[in-house]
Amino acid sequence: MIKKLLQRVFKPATSNKSAPATPAGKVERISARVHRIDRKLLSNAAIKTTEGLQKAGFEAFVVGGAVRDLLLKQRPKDFDVATNATPEQVNKVFRRSRIIGRRFRLVHVMFGDEVIEVSTFRGSHLNEQGDAKVADTGRILRDNVFGSQEEDAVRRDFTANALYYDPASEEVLDFHQGVPDIQAGILRMIGDPVTRYREDPVRMLRAVRLSAKLGLKIDKATEQPISELADLLHDVPPSRLFDEMLKLFLSGHAIESANALRQHGLHHGLLPLLDVVLEQPIGERFVKLALKNTDERVLSGKPVSPSFLFATLLWHEVLLAWKKFEQQGNKPIPALHMAMDEVCDIQAEKMAIHKRFSATMREIWGLQPRFEQRAGKRPYSLLENPRYRAAYDFLLLRCESGELPAELGQWWTDFANADGEQRQTMLLPETAPKKRRRRRGPKKSAAGE
Length: 449
Description:
The protein has helices at residues 2-10, 32-35, 44-55, 65-71, 87-93, 149-155, 178-184, 193-199, 202-214, 220-223, 226-229, 238-249, 254-263, 272-275, 281-299, 306-327, 332-350, 355-367, 378-383, 388-401, 406-417, 420-426; strands at 28-30, 60-63, 80-83, 97-100, 106-111, 114-120, 131-134, 140-144, 163-166, 171-174, 186-187, 217-218. With 449 residues, it is of the alpha+beta class.
């Protein structure tokens, strides 16, 4: 404590001149004896980040969703830190760090494989002195206005996310009654919900996700404007929508989240499947099986492939387009590739799926017709394909949903587990017409012979 005090007293006068001090405001300080956060759930990297900034003379707190999860006795997936140090000052404190972002300038601090995201306390985006830009709709396009901790708390979305935890003092700072709301199981917007949704429409998706994931009931005033303002999501960059939807579907509560999206009218235009497929019996069963499978893997700590997930979510759009192109006279395989191109192009306009995922999605889709080829050498070559396992799991979902006969999935399960002789006996008779070998004509005699 003495060392920290001396550092604060004798730190250079210019070390944090651009970051205003926290004004005395209405804040409830909750001690460790009351909140009972289990420090074993804290990330060492987050502790080192706050310690490093505090030793340099700055304020630093674990903030937002991590504090919320700690209060709920859950291990946070990510840890964010908020500070009164500017991004440049944070960057100087940590050797392994980098400044990122244009809309919101942040610093990523690296400790091994773990990345801690550090943000500077935000001020009001309406402040004319800062670097901010707002669209006519009210959506914040750029926001690099720094302020006090109290101002930063006002800028956060929900009361449950406006919490600050200091690992050194073990105090939780609560500016907006977030702790009582968490205890009451309520998700409440800070400020006027309409204004806050206009500032960032993604908050509507976040409300649905957090409600489903944490079992919090959305406050009436927070919930009421969502269906009316759903169209604002059309103005959000597709890449941001993808990131938020990925969090939603990988929350471990994807089914509840999908149902909540439909309930609040937020699904239109994000994923075609949620517009159409969930109204079709087979499509709905297929999607729900895929989401159930994803939830089970997430909750049991198993890895989940975003490529596989989105391949399932868009599959019935591919099926409809495939059928359309076949009816136009195209052969099955070229028609499938035309369908994949069309679905991916339409999807990219609304919610951009990263190329590294869409490439794998196409491979999974493209292998599906090959599962119906069970003669000759084709089954052997399919087993050796790098994407066989993902495509096989996809096939099983199609069979379970009733799209394909269960016998097909069972055949491939048995074939993969069989030995060489058994596999040979399982092959079906060749039905495709044999390719005719081109007969070579007589060799032409050399000139002059």
